Amino acid sequence: MSNGDEAILEVRGLKVGIEDTPILKGIDLRIPKGEIHAIMGRNGSGKTTTANVIMGHPAYDVEEGEILLDGENLQEMEPWERSRKGVFLSFQYPQSIPGLQVGNFLRKSVSSVRGEEAARGSEFREKLNQAMEELDIPKSFLSRYVNDGFSGGEKKRFEILQLMLLEPRLAVLDETDSGLDIDGIRTVAKGINSVVKETENGALIITHYSRILEHVNPDRVHVMIGGRIVASGGPSLAILLEENGYDWLEEQVANGVDFE
Amino acid sequence: MDPDSVYLSSEMPDRADHLWKYTSWKKAHPTGNVREIPDTVSSPKIVLKTIDGSSLPEGISLVHDQTEFDDLPNEEIITKSFMQSVTEDSKFTLSVDPKFKSAIPIVLDIQSNGNYCAAHLCLKIGRLAEFELVTIIKGECEWFGLMRTGSTGEGSVCNDVFVNKLSKGVTLRVESISIPRNSQFKSGTVSSGSTLTKADLRFRMFEPGASLNVLGSILSAGRMSLDHHIEIYHDSPETFSRLDWNSACGGSSKTIGTGMLRVSKGSSGADAAQLFSNLLLSGDAQADSIPELEVSEHDVVGCGHGTASGPVDENQMFYLESRGMSPRESRSTLIAAFLNSTLSEMGGDLMHGWLVSELEDDLNELGY
Questions:
Q1: A5, burial (CB in 10 Å: exposed 0-12, middle 13-18, buried 19+)
Q2: Rounded to whole angstroms, how far apart are CA atoms B298 and A228?
Q3: For chain A: N or C, fewer Cβ within 10 A?
Q4: For the residues A98-109, what does the mean pLDDT come to?
Q5: pLDDT tens sequence across A44-101
Q6: Looking at the whole model, is its pTM more than 0.80?
Q7: pLDDT for residue A1
Q8: Partners of B184 in the β-ladder
């Protein structure tokens, strides 16, 4: 449900480095309410940095630019404050935390983001059960430790389970499809759609492949090369890119081709 | 010779000894004058109960003024004779009938009394008994001494957890436990009490099929110094032991974990491993871990040891903060998780739930 001009996320002229090495060299990105956008790009193009910087990772220095969520500047906010404002990052490599049980972690997360009431009672349990069922996650999962000994697929499903429970305004999904088989991608895509489609929330999907995009139908696709968004267009851009490769795209961009 | 004479005629321990390297006997002694045995050591108040307040099942009892125990090899003569002297009027035996079973953990609630307080507790566990035991010490004394000795029964399964909740002072803890054929014994230590702790814990597996898990969840803050020495003896074939010791230390506190694993000649098929992990919560905190091995048998399944120390992981912090938890809550959650890794192995769900609640209280009290 796209809602015209109002943007959930607006990134303006973002320049970011780490230990004096420039990584993002001026990113502009705008995600209107209810839209799903995708970023594609080679390894090292700055996709994961973009995701981490939106979440407020302390390792990166923002040299220039702004990140606005619903018009509010996130720049001075800590990661936990951004999370409470509605930003969610699905990690490419989620951290394992031995000793912290999944059930306890989910309760703490929901309580922190959506308030104590949301993490209590039958409503929480019902929502949790429903989300686990949709993602094909067994009940025994709740007593395991966070990401400890999880397979690649389990880690990605667990990230989406958190997404479904936290109901963020903006979901940033960093290569959530990598390491998943076809069924896994379908299940994960279903979870993403349930949080974003038919709502006024938004999502930014970072991926190498068009497979997941077939299931979530992004409104816009952006391509990053060398720390810049070099091309933007509709969903067909993802297919063109996968068929022809990044060298072809760079050539097209150099020749002034517009993918809009 | 009576214990007083044994103690007073013994040579005082050298700081070069493995056991006394970090916390001298002078520091662990009630008065610091190692040549005296104080005559003002009181007996604590001990109550035997269940963890949930339900009535105590039949087959387990605490009897005053009785102790009997087997000597373990290489026992520290100083602490043993000293503890025997100061517990002359404070001896208790926990008797557990053969085939005793309890789904509800049993609690030995020990309340300190007076400035100096001590007890000798003998465990007499019958064969095929299955139960969980929490020994908790509480109070405000300046010095507390606890000696636990005894043997588990053949084929018994016992999860035994010691919790130190003393608000201050010095704790001296001495344990000598023998583990017979096919007996499974778990010994957990949860410690965030006392300003100074010196513990000398010794376990001996003397028949085939004996199994031992030693687990520690240690939390220190301020200027606390918590020193645990653990000796494990494999004195029979086909014996199994694991030592997992997690210490989280903050402020300018210090935790020490020294392990000695001895596998005697003839203990073929022994399987043993020791791991000390330390979480450093401040720049001034100090954690020392020294696992040692003495393996005299070449036909073993494995005998390994390791140690790891580090601060709170920044990536884990970012992960939790990205889920809305404040830096303080994230840090506290990670400390609790670190300690829970061993805590969760100490017993069943009921005991674990109780221990987690105790841990959360401790984290709050110590300002984490």
A1: exposed
A2: 62
A3: C
A4: 96
A5: 999 999 999 999 999 999 999 999 999 999 999 999 999 999 999 999 999 999 999 9
A6: yes
A7: 45
A8: B157, B211
Q: Which residue of B has its CA nearest to A87?
A: B322
Predicted confidence (pLDDT) per residue in A4-21, tens digit: 568 999 999 999 998 888
Preferred mutation among A95, A106, A164 to probe B, highest tally of B CBs within 10 A = A95
Question: Strand B254-263 and strand B286-295: pairing?
Answer: parallel
Of residues A7, A50, A35, A3, the one with CA closest to residue A226? A50
Q: Do A108 and B338 touch (CB under 8 A)?
A: no
In terms of Cα–Cα distance, which of A191, A95, A133 is closest to B325?
A: A95
| Mean pLDDT estimate for chain B | 94
- The number of domains in chain B is 1
Cα(A110)–Cα(A161) distance, integer angstroms: 11
Collect all residues with Cβ–Cβ distance below 8 Å to A243 and sequence separation of at least 6. Answer: none
CA nearest to B162, candidates B177, B178, B143? B177
B48 pairs with which residues across the strands? B108
Fill in the amino acid letter for B49. Answer: K
With 60 as the cut, is the pLDDT of residue B36 above it? yes
Torsion region of B356: left, alpha or beta (phi above 0 gives left; psi -120 to 50 gives alpha): alpha
Integer angstrom CA distances of residue A241 from A209, A233, B355: 9, 11, 56
Residue A259 lies in a domain: no
Structure tokens at A195: 């949080």
CB contact under 8 A, B319 and A91: yes
Separation CA B100–CA B59 (nearest Å): 6
Which tokens in the block code for residue B30? 């009630």
Q: Is B302 a domain residue?
A: yes
Is residue B144 predicted with pLDDT exceeding 70?
Answer: yes
Supply A199's token pair. Answer: 């709502």
The tokens for A105 are 């972690």
Compute the 3-state secondary structure of chain B and give helix, strand, coil in percent, each to the nearest 5: 15, 45, 40
Considering the domain boundaries, does residue A154 fall inside one?
yes
In a domain, B194, yes or no: yes
Give residue B34's domain range.
3-312
At A96 the pLDDT is 97
Q: What gap in Å lies between CA A255 and CA B323, rounded to an integer?
A: 44
Q: What confidence tens digit (pLDDT) does each residue in A115-158 have?
A: 988 888 888 999 999 999 999 999 999 999 999 999 999 999 99
**Residue B342 domain-assigned (yes or no):** no
Interface mutation vs chain A, best among B312, B322, B332, most A CBs within 10 Å: B322
Residue A167 C-alpha, separation from nearest chain B C-alpha, in angstroms: 12
Contact predicate A16/A60, CB 8 Å: yes
CA distance A251 to B13: 80
- Residue at A2 is within a domain: no
